[in-house]
Write a structure and sequence with these properties.
This protein is α+β, with helices and mostly antiparallel strands. Helix content is 34%, strand content 24%. The radius of gyration is 22 Å and the shape is elongated.
Length: 288
């Protein structure tokens, strides 16, 4: 697949966009906004891309959660599912053109996004990029997505078509560009094809990000505690002074987990706490 040129793929994508047309229930134009597949028929299997999921991180990721109690909402996020996604759709009111940014993560071996993965401060993050979509006669829009892990090919690998299902829902259909088919498992798009995405308000998105950051911290903290308990008494005695100093420094930098604040403030705090906790776990126990 690496030997496919950008020109070939670009030509194929253009042809695919023009040829690909799903049957929409209505010819309504797409309502701009943020969408995530959070309440389709398989509601528990779908969450927006920033939400926490043990499933998406691998079966062993949340072993430290055993014995903990969670709210039904938190439990649903923890159980997760094979598809995580989140999309932002905007429309230029002057030209009528649509653009989309986002990522779709499918059963761990199929990822498509509008932007590449980039490294920032030693961490890999998605560079959310808005790409232009083609408006179809039936009111739907067809938008190109790439494999964000592909380091050589920048041309799109698949076309996602969105049609307005109802005022607050869009239907999604996916089609791989033929030349890129070998990149993806044949079952990847069966799970996303024609699923329903719900419109997300800013408040709903903020709440999900808050819960996700909290769960991410709890997982990291639980993992650290498991490793600490596995140490011998001599090892604990040796590490305890440094560990206490680190806890104080962590709370000073991030804010204590008992702090009060807005959901945005708590989300930042939990993310910081989780990052520092994982870093310390590696530092303390990698050679123990």
């Amino acid at each position: 697949m690496k030997n496919i040129t950008k020109a070939v793929l670009t030509t194929a994508v253009t042809a695919s966009i023009c040829a690909f047309n799903i049957s929409a229930a209505a010819a309504d134009e797409i309502q701009p906004g943020r969408y995530a597949p959070t309440s389709s028929e398989n509601a528990k299997m779908f969450h927006n891309r920033g939400s926490f999921t043990c499933y998406g991180n691998g079966a062993a990721y949340c072993q430290s959660f055993e014995g903990r109690k969670f709210t039904p909402e938190e439990k649903e996020l923890i159980e997760g599912g094979p598809v995580l996604a989140d999309l932002q759709i905007i429309k230029d009111e002057n030209t009528g053109e649509y653009s989309v940014a986002g990522r779709v993560f499918i059963i761990r071996n199929c990822e498509l996004a509008t932007g590449k993965i980039v490294e920032r401060d030693g961490k890999y993050e998605y560079n959310d990029t808005f790409v232009k979509c083609q408006k179809n006669d039936n009111g739907s829009i067809s938008c190109p997505f790439i494999d964000p892990m592909d380091e050589e090919i920048k041309a799109p690998h698949a076309i996602f078509t969105f049609s307005q299902n109802s005022p607050k829902k869009i239907a999604v259909a996916a089609k791989v560009v033929p030349e890129a088919a070998e990149l993806f498992n044949s079952g990847c798009f069966e799970m996303i094809d024609e699923s329903i995405y719900d419109y997300e308000t800013d408040e709903e998105y903020e709440h999900t990000m808050y819960l996700s950051a909290k769960l991410d911290f709890l997982e990291a903290d639980g993992d650290l505690n498991m490793k600490w308990k596995a140490l011998t008494k001599a090892q604990k005695d040796k590490l305890l002074p440094a560990q206490r100093k680190w806890i104080k420094e962590k709370d000073e930098k991030c804010g204590a987990v008992t702090m009060k604040g807005s959901k945005k403030e708590l989300t930042v705090m939990y993310k910081c706490q989780a990052d520092m906790t994982r870093e310390k776990a590696t530092e303390l126990f990698v050679d123990e």
